[in-house]
User: Which sequence fits this backbone?
């Protein structure tokens, strides 16, 4: 008998159709992976299961959870169900916890709401739940606050809250998307273990095929509010029929074609770069300590090369990026572009800076919402001594937009009229407009859906060939780095621990940390790629 | 919907008083500088819709002219606050953590530390009671409000990627503040400006009430209240109408500020 059975569920919000005839089943002790891109309705399916839908929602069909018709339950009955029968883990561990309450209080709260137990007993059980989520009491007492924990540890607290009452069904909505690869692997292992121990059903929602393929017993692929294909994980990848499933799989493993070998001339030379930050303790007269963000990093990028820089959060990637871009002065070493220093006499060298541009991760935060696209992408012209004006400028803007696959007419629109993928194209157009030689891609495709990501990667490869661009590709996503770079650097705690040709590093990692990273990265089953 | 209703109601109330102030430049029912002792302390009637005061002056005319004083004082005071506070806040945010930032913000704390009306009384007592000194006194206390608000709004904007992109484009702190930061904190400033405007009207009324604001014969709501105080038992209309004028203007401005906040804050709008 299945634990959760969704039959022909249709959902509309204020009359707009969101889900259409969605059906899926989860049996106890099984993991259902729900895959889809943004807007596919995967999260809405989860919220419908818990009936945590926005105002104006209308559900048709059946949701049967543990023998109960969820759609017919009263709000009071739903409150009893949520947390006790169904637990939920969210994407963003930084905001899923209340910052001013201790972790023990927050886990105990779930228990106190649903069961008539004393506070001390609830705290005892909270400790037990945290222990099961691998936060032992001797190292993580109940009195800890969320800000004292790392992202992965916070996600464990969220998991402990979800499993404190041993629910029959756990819904995890992109539980590892905000986490580093190694942390992601640990959290996925934890979820897998808890499912096996408790005989829970798990609905694992993700946009990442590899994550789901590693973990799930069954898979449902969603698109535009419909399940396009579903089946057991072992066979689905081999037998999938629907063109969308195939396209999604192809996009996940997409490797753009690149011609043009790098020349054997260094474009950017980074030598023994050191960047320290002074950390102020409390108050004006408190002690200060020094934090070494980048500790003596050296590498070259050759002309026309695509170099990957891989590392987890806090490893110094962003600091290094800012130093290369001449936004911050380094304390030691030198950064030369084409033999000339990026920083001269405490000031950034304008002649050098106009030869570099950057594309950021977040397509939504990269643009001033009050400017039109034309003005936005012309901003780097500020670096030129005699920027083009009038007709010439309009022509250059149109050219930049067309080279990234948009229309010249788009320059008169505001940025909110564009989707995430289009915005990232606009960001690339902004980087291209002053015809730089080096473009730094700071997690530039990490926030995009897989199919859009594949298009943007193709665009970058194409532009690289056409304009002879050199890329520094910073990412935490190993599969992307593997597919688009010639060489790769692995960075950890401010140092480069390994560097070499991408293929060599991935196939035969030397450093322990690289091995750990590659092992932790989820991969699609070998036979389907 | 609630935001829109607030905005409507507040906007209408504000418009009524602003309109009354504007009309008073061209026409008032009676000249407020002419005394008509024969008609003193009359209740509302056909000739004097809101009655007359102890000098026989028409209260409706007095309120119309008084609106002029209140609005002018509050408007200039908010202007002083914004004009100095916003650049200070932008500078502090641009140089976050520097000595300059500390200097600006601790200076703000210093001004904030004193009860504003008491210091305003002190300033007007030292430099003489006049509308101009009242404006300056109220204006000074608006500076830290706008400086803090601008700084906090600007700090969160400085971490945005588009600011980083502007820095990569070689733009300096001043230019980024003007082009990217200021336009994106304007919403905050408009909302706060409306609220400070209403506080300015209250402060002006308070100063005039104790005789430190606009001096006779300039009509002022606070002074009208003060004049009516001894006669409140037998001529309540003399206190009632200026009191209502203050109440409704402040209410209108606050509602408008609230409505504007709802209008500008997309998060609140979506939640509705």
Assistant:
């Amino acid at each position: 008998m299945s634990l959760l059975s969704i039959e022909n569920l249709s959902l509309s919000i204020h009359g707009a159709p969101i889900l259409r005839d969605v059906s899926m089943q989860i049996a106890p002790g099984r993991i259902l992976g729900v895959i889809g891109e943004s807007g596919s309705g995967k999260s809405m399916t989860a919220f419908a299961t818990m009936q945590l839908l926005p105002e104006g929602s209308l559900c048709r069909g059946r949701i049967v959870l543990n023998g109960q018709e969820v759609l017919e339950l009263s709000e009071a009955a739903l409150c009893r169900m949520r947390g006790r029968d169904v637990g939920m883990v969210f994407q963003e561990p930084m905001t899923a916890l209340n910052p001013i309450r201790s972790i023990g209080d927050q886990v105990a709260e779930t228990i106190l709401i649903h069961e008539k137990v004393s506070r001390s007993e609830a705290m005892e059980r909270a400790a037990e739940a945290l222990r099961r989520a691998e936060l032992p009491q001797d190292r993580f007492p109940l009195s800890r606050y969320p800000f004292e924990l790392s992202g992965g540890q916070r996600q464990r607290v969220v998991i402990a809250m979800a499993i404190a009452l041993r629910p029959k069904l756990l819904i995890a909505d992109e539980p590892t998307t905000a986490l580093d690869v190694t942390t992601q692997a640990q959290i996925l292992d934890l979820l897998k273990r808890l499912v096996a121990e408790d005989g829970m059903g798990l609905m694992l929602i993700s946009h990442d095929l590899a994550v789901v393929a590693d973990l799930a017993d069954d898979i449902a692929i969603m698109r535009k509010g419909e399940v396009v294909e579903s089946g057991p994980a072992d066979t689905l990848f081999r037998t999938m029929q629907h063109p969308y499933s195939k396209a999604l799989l192809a996009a996940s493993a997409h490797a753009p074609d690149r011609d043009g070998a790098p020349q054997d001339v260094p474009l950017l030379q980074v030598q023994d770069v050191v960047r320290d930050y002074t950390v102020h303790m409390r108050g004006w007269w408190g002690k200060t300590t020094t934090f070494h963000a980048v500790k003596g990093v050296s590498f070259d990028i050759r002309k026309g090369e695509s170099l990957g820089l891989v590392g987890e959060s806090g490893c110094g990637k962003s600091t290094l990026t800012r130093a290369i871009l001449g936004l911050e002065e380094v304390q030691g070493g030198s950064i030369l572009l084409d033999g000339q220093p990026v920083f001269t006499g405490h000031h950034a060298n304008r002649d050098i800076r106009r030869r570099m541009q950057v594309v950021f991760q977040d397509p939504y935060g990269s643009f001033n919402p009050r400017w039109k696209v034309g003005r936005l992408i012309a901003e780097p012209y500020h670096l030129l001594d005699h920027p083009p004006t009038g007709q010439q400028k309009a022509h250059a803007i149109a050219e930049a937009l067309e080279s990234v696959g948009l229309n010249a007419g788009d320059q008169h629109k505001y940025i909110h009229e564009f989707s995430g993928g289009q915005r990232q194209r606009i960001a690339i157009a902004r980087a291209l407009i002053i015809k730089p030689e080096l473009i730094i891609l700071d997690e530039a495709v990490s926030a995009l859906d897989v199919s859009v990501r594949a298009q943007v990667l193709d665009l970058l490869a194409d532009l690289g060939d056409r304009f002879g661009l050199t890329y520094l590709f910073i990412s935490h996503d190993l599969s992307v780095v593997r597919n688009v770079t010639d060489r790769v650097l692995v960075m950890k705690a401010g140092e480069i621990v390994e560097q070499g040709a991408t293929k060599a590093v991935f196939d035969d990692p030397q450093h322990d940390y690289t091995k750990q990273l590659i092992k932790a990265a989820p991969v699609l089953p070998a036979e389907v790629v | 919907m609630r935001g829109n209703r607030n905005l409507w109601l507040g906007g209408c109330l504000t418009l009524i008083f602003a309109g009354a102030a504007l009309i008073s430049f061209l026409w008032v029912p009676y000249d407020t500088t002419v005394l008509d002792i024969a008609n003193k302390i009359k209740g509302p009637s056909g000739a004097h819709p809101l009655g007359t005061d102890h000098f026989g002056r028409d209260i409706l005319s007095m309120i119309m002219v008084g609106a002029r004083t209140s609005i002018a004082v509050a408007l200039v005071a908010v202007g002083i606050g914004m004009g100095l506070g916003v650049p200070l806040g932008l500078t502090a945010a641009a140089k976050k953590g520097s000595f300059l930032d500390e200097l600006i913000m601790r200076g703000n704390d210093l001004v904030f530390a004193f009860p504003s009306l008491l210091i305003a009384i002190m300033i007007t007592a030292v430099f003489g009671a006049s509308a101009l000194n009242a404006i300056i006194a109220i204006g000074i206390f608006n500076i830290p409000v706008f400086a803090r608000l601008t700084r906090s709004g600007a700090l969160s904007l400085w971490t945005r990627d588009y600011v980083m992109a502007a820095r990569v484009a070689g733009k300096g702190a001043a230019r980024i503040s003007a082009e990217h930061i200021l336009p994106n904190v304007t919403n905050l400033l408009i909302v706060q400006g409306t609220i400070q405007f209403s506080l300015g009207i209250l402060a002006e009324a308070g100063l005039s009430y104790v005789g430190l604001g606009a001096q006779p014969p300039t009509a002022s709501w606070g002074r009208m209240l003060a004049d009516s105080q001894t006669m409140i038992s037998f001529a309540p209309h003399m206190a009632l109408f200026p009191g209502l004028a203050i109440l409704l203007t402040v209410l209108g401005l606050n509602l408008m500020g609230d409505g504007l906040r709802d209008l500008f804050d997309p998060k609140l709008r979506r939640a509705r």
About this structure: The two ends of chain A are 34 Å apart (CA to CA). Chain A has a mean pLDDT of 87.
